[in-house]
Amino acid sequence: MKKSFLPLLFLFILGLTAGNSFAQDWLPRNDDKKMSIENLADELIKQDVAHWRVVLAQAIVESGWNFDSYLFRHSNNFIGMRIPYARESTRVGSFKGYSVYATWQDCVKDIKLWQEHNWDGGSEEEYIALMHKIWSESPRYYSAVRSVIRRIDKMPEVARLENLTQFSGLMWQAYTTINEEENTNDL
To answer: Which CATH number characterizes residue 109's domain?
Structure first.
């Protein structure tokens, strides 16, 4: 009887502490791919996040160059994603009104879901202006994000990823052009 009671007690206590930092301190982390500027940029590109350079800059503004903010360390939330109420999300919990993720990659997926729900497309400048309007509490957010973008554009590891992105875009254009020509010839 005692043995069957202990797992239930553990689950009950776990449920009570889900919103507290105690529960967040032992969240599973994906240590196979450690959080870094290059790994984050790579994941943003892989997940096809719109204006990935802006999102990367936001992450640095929000969590620091070493991704050592309190929110990130306790929730895998590097950008300050709030708890969503009207859209799908990859969050596994909450922490002081912010989403908690099992891995930082899940935060990237949630940013993509946020964009699909809230972003109709547009230029990088329009995206930054939207982020400044709805995301930040600081009147200097726009200039901080712009400043970080200028710095990351000079980083070789980010430039390499940008070149790969441009190359894949060119390869996709070539592929679709060839397919269109083949389909036209088949008629």
So the answer is: 1.10.530.10
